[in-house]
């Protein structure tokens, strides 16, 4: 067994990103801008050798991983394995809703009144309470709270560890809020509670999956020009 370097790539901009809609497990196609941004990332990684590439099972991530695969000139990647555990955070009944109206409902559920700026909400109540308030505000209470999301992240890393035991470097396409939450948990620049910058579309976050299953993030939210 050996340590595995993991390149976590956020999918490109989608139609729902552009339309300011909540997008977790629901899906929408990549935009022209999203594809153009991804091509820059793909070109920056074109000569990085990967033993394998993986993807969340949502279409925007699958489309993204194929752009990475097609541009890479030094790797021989077979069929892409889809990993449902690396899906975006689930927002329950809010999926597809207007994002500002959703944040306002979450802010009210958290007891801080009207607020549509998600960063201000999280700064006030913290990321953990934000997850709880999201579940509380969801009329069907389906949205993932901190405990559910944390269990899924641990499962995602455990499964990836099993899959990559004989792989030195892999690429995994995932999603903004999921990658950010991984970084809050596994990046030593984060104290595990306070918020960090949301990763850009097409950005790369790099982690090390140690042979004993420990995971640590060593680089966060790097754009194509920084790679």
TrEMBL record:
One GO cellular component term: cytosol
Keyword Hydrolase on entry: yes
Top-level taxonomic group: Bacteria
Signal sequence interval, chain numbering: none
Positions bearing the site annotation: Transition state stabilizer: 175
InterPro entries: His_Pase_superF_clade-1, His_PPase_superfam, PG/BPGM_mutase_AS, Phosphoglycerate_Mutase
Protein name, as recorded: Phosphoglycerate mutase
Residue positions binding substrate: 10-17, 60
Record-linked Pfam families: His_Phos_1 (PF00300)
SUPFAM superfamilies for the chain: Phosphoglycerate mutase-like
